[in-house]
Amino acid sequence: MWLVTLLLLYSLQEANSEDVVSTRLYFVNASLQRVTFSSSVGVSLPCPAGGAPHAILRWYLAAGDDIYDVPHIRHVHANGTLQLYPFSPSAYNSIIHDNEYFCTAENQAGKIRSPSIHIKAGEAQTN
Asked: Which positions carry the signal peptide feature in this UniProt record (predicted)?
């Protein structure tokens, strides 16, 4: 009976140890600090963090404000990619097109925050 109890406790400890090892958060590219893009092309920026098991990825403005979708201007995809669509000069908004953003990854291991990334739209180049 004691042997069965000890084996059961040992197997539970091993299972918990495996869970701790396989649960993690990590940065894919923590060195990214600045992205400049053409207003005529737009940009897609994956969140530079991830996790195992799957992490929930969210984007924020540097001030900590949640990012919300602006139809045909800014969208956060389910996979954590921030997309800024091409836009005309009259649609320029410095809060969206010239600001610092960061993303977070969160799962059972906790939550990590990427460094701030300055995203800036440039003028469309004409030849």
From this structure: 1-17
- Per-residue pLDDT reduced to its tens digit, 38-93: 999 999 999 988 899 999 999 999 999 999 999 999 999 999 999 999 999 999 99
CA dist., res. 114 & res. 6, Å (int): 43
The three-state DSSP-derived secondary structure of 40-103 is CCCEEECCCEEEECCCEEEEEECCCCECCCECCCEEECCCCCEEECCCCHHHCCHHHHEEEEEE
Q: Give the residue carrying structure tokens 């919300």.
A: 68
Is-contact 87 71, C-beta < 8 A? Answer: no
Instruction: Quote the radius of gyration of the chain (alpha carbons, Å).
Output: 21
Look at residues 39, 33, 34, 22 and name the one whose alpha carbon lies nearest to residue 89: 39
- Spatial contact of 97 and 107, defined as CB atoms under 8 Å apart: no
In three-state secondary structure terms, 123 is coil
